[in-house]
């Protein structure tokens, strides 16, 4: 078992990422006439030509993504040895997912041409976001289950939820709502990762270690 002492900074970083993303979504929506969280994608607030788009992209995408990438890197050093290669690979994939989330803010949509080059680059970053997260969270869940960690079911559920809501058509949920539920599960996963990477179901390490 790794002996690195827990630090409060990863948890604070994950909380700050949530506050920045949610706060920016709520604060900047009134600046765009007719914008509705129930009908429009979050990325529209950061699109070219939208008021204060650059500030929104920085606060809602770039900073939260960088913070959560750091959370994942820090968690990598605190995983139990019994988690194996799967858990370690999963954490690195979560770091890539977080960087792809930040990249969405650096590659904004073009609101006047949703099929243009700028919008396609944003869509590619969005795709990398969930493509990296889903197998990463699944691998982390598998590794954590091997180590008897309580957070394993969370990551398994988050992987399935993001896959269903981000990658597959949802006949029962509007696309904007599905996107936000997937984003909430994604953000919450880094909160769980920041707090649970060093704990293993409350059992002490074997004698002599």
Describe the fold and architecture.
- This protein is an all-alpha fold and 209 residues long.
- Helices cover 65% and strands 0% of the residues.
- The chain has helices at 9-28, 53-76, 84-106, 117-146, 152-167, 175-196.
- The longest helix is centred in the middle third of the chain and has 30 residues, at 117-146.
- The termini are close together.
Features:
0% strand; 209 residues; globular; disordered C terminus
Secondary-structure element series: HHHHHH
* Number of separate helices: 6
Mean pLDDT: 88
Distance from first to last alpha carbon? 8 Å
Sheet of most strands: none
Task: Kindly state the percentage of residues in helix.
Answer: 55-70%
**Number of extended strands:** 0
Instruction: Indicate the radius of gyration in whole angstroms.
Output: 18 Å
In short:
The protein is an all-alpha fold. 65% of the residues lie in helices and 0% in strands.
Q: Secondary-structure map with pairings?
A:
Blueprint: H1 9-28, H2 53-76, H3 84-106, H4 117-146, H5 152-167, H6 175-196
Helix pairs in contact: 1-2, 1-6, 2-3, 2-6, 3-4, 4-5, 5-6
